[in-house]
Specification:
The chain is α/β, with parallel strands linked by helices. It folds into 2 domains: about 240 residues, P-loop containing nucleotide triphosphate hydrolases (Rossmann fold, 3-Layer(aba) Sandwich); about 60 residues. Strand 11 and strand 12 form a beta hairpin. The radius of gyration is 25 Å and the shape is globular. The two termini are about 35 Å apart.
Length: about 325
């Protein structure tokens, strides 16, 4: 049975138009015109327990609105959503006790309190048994290296430190689902990698279902097994990252270091797009010729020192989909 079921889910907002000027203000009092914004428009998907899913889209595509309906913050305009066997907005308190949420731009920690005191308050709010709290605190402190700043007020933490503390706060009560909204925004490379490894570990070891919304597609590619792409309120792709590359990233690149500079390079099924001394860049369509066939051609005609196959970047593929559609 899926842990999350979403069927034909929609959320529409009324946006009232404001007429300018004095007479316009009077008319606004008598009658108001409005337009309908379809933030989420007929979205359907299911998630199994233990999945780690990337939910991506441009600003205003509907990501955060979907998450807010899954957490019970917003009531859908139409459609059905079920999380762990219950409708979130009908059973908000019960749902809140079984989920964890991290918003990159906000914190659930108390600004002026030391980190450890915020954790202690959350222990009482969620009624976490002392032995469970002690075990989780020690485990997460070790994995996320929290010990040096547990007694530091939250307001004095760096962004990377605060994000690690927010992840701990969201997981202290052993939630079954973790919603992450831009958890690595503004972090440096090292901090991002630490959080990615942590998410993979708790997903594997604890079978926590994770939904990750982000603009950093490296997060999705390095962490997630599945990707949902939303655009203008509609799901336009639901599948694996490899499947996305196979379907929409057919152009690959072979980077070759030749043993010497050859005056002319001619190969069937490939185009040389760049050259620097004895290094060449060859682009080819995976549906036209395989990498092994191209390499066989190369080795038959030229002496090779080294070569690398470069897969299309997921960011470029998603950019292309937004620009040209799913063709």
């Amino acid at each position: 049975m899926p842990i999350i079921t979403v069927e034909h889910l929609s959320k529409h907002f009324k946006v009232y138009k404001r007429r300018p000027g004095f007479w316009g203000s009077l008319r606004n009092i008598v009658s108001r015109e409005h337009s309908i914004i379809r933030a989420v428009d007929d979205v359907s998907f299911t998630l199994e327990r233990g999945e780690l899913v990337g939910y991506i889209g441009a600003n205003g595509a509907g990501k955060s609105t979907t998450i807010k309906m899954l957490t019970g913050i917003l009531v859908p305009t139409s459609g059905h959503v079920e999380v762990m066997g219950a409708v979130p907005y009908e059973r908000r308190k019960e749902n809140a006790r079984r989920i964890g949420v991290v918003f990159g731009q906000r914190t659930q920690l108390w600004w002026d309190l030391p980190v450890i005191e915020s954790f202690d308050l959350l222990k009482h709010i969620y009624a976490i048994p002392q032995n469970v709290y002690n075990h989780n605190l020690e485990l997460f402190s070790e994995l996320l290296q929290l010990h040096p700043f547990l007694d530091t007020p939250v307001r004095k933490l760096s962004l990377g430190q605060r994000m690690r503390c927010d992840l701990t706060a969201a997981l202290l009560h052993n939630p079954e689902i973790l919603y992450l909204d831009e958890p690595t925004i503004g972090l440096d490379v090292v901090a991002k990698e630490n959080i990615r490894q942590f998410l993979k570990q708790i997903n594997t070891e604890r079978q926590v279902t994770v939904i990750l919304t982000t603009h950093d597609l490296n997060d999705v590619e390095k962490v997630c097994q599945r990707m949902l792409i939303i655009d203008r309120g509609k799901i336009i792709y639901d599948g694996s990252i490899d499947g996305l590359k196979q379907r929409y990233g057919k152009t690959r690149m072979l980077i070759v270091d030749l043993a010497q500079v050859y005056p002319e390079i001619k190969l069937d099924g490939a185009e040389m797009t760049r050259r620097e001394d004895n290094r060449i860049w060859l682009t080819f369509d995976r549906d036209t010729i395989s990498a092994s066939e191209l390499i066989a051609q190369l080795t038959a005609q030229y002496e090779i020192k080294d070569l690398t196959i470069s897969e299309p970047e997921i960011e470029a593929i998603v950019r292309r989909i937004y620009k040209w559609g799913m063709t």
